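Page 42, continued from yesterday. The earlier attempt failed because a stray header line got pasted into the input along with the sequence. Redoing it now with the clean sequence only.
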Amino acid sequence: MTEARWPDDRRAQSARRTPGTPCWVSLMAHDVAATQEFYAELFGWTYRPGPQQLGPYVRAMLDGYEVAGIGQLPDRQLPITWTPYLASDDADATAESVRHCGGTVGVGPLVAGKAGRMAIASDPAGAVFGIWQAAAHAGAGVAGVPGTPTWTELLTRETVEVAKFYQTLFGYHEKAATRPNLDYLTLSLDGRPVASVRGVGQALPRDRGAHWMTYFETLDVDASAARVVELGGHVISPAEPGRYGRIATVADPEGAVFTLIRSERPS
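This time it went through. Structure tokens are written below.
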């Protein structure tokens, strides 16, 4: 449910975002109507039409704020996944940098109506992400409250080489975890943590490879995970204490994987 709010996290995002900041998340699905219903039941989302240049596409709304996008997957062979978009001042220049640094640009850059300019790319390890140059649409209008994306993490085999790729693109400051045998980096911009990279070695799923994981805030991780199952999805990793709060990794009925989190809050 979305009635309860963390007291200081409801905030409209500024029109101009620091390049490299995760600013939007989008899911391309086979059955858009059924996918909308699933997330409406889980997070309380409502919807309004998105840019028609993207095909059948809607923007998920929470209490009047845009929080995510859901669109029609054009090819049934493509994986169904939540894709984060990283802000850019110049999508064309960022796409060219992706190619220069060993990544791949699969879509665009192209204009998404009056909303902005976008591209879909992948890093050298194969993790897919979006590039977003804002115009009328700056990205998510609220974050960190139940029903919204609250964190973005890259799961890859090892962090060193792929982190160099993203640091070259966006100038992230990287801070390594101090715990032994933990391959983990926090990425910051202007002194503010914005994402993380976790090296999981051979534990990387063979059927998914390197990928970005979106964390959605919830009031009760255990109850939300149970609700996922009731709505036709399934639990991949049961609820447990995580680095920044209680988490559970789940998948929607079409197989899109995401993580539920009840973030730890200062007392």
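Notes: The domain at 149-263 is CATH 3.10.180.10 (2,3-Dihydroxybiphenyl 1,2-Dioxygenase; domain 1).
Reminder to self: strip header lines before submitting.
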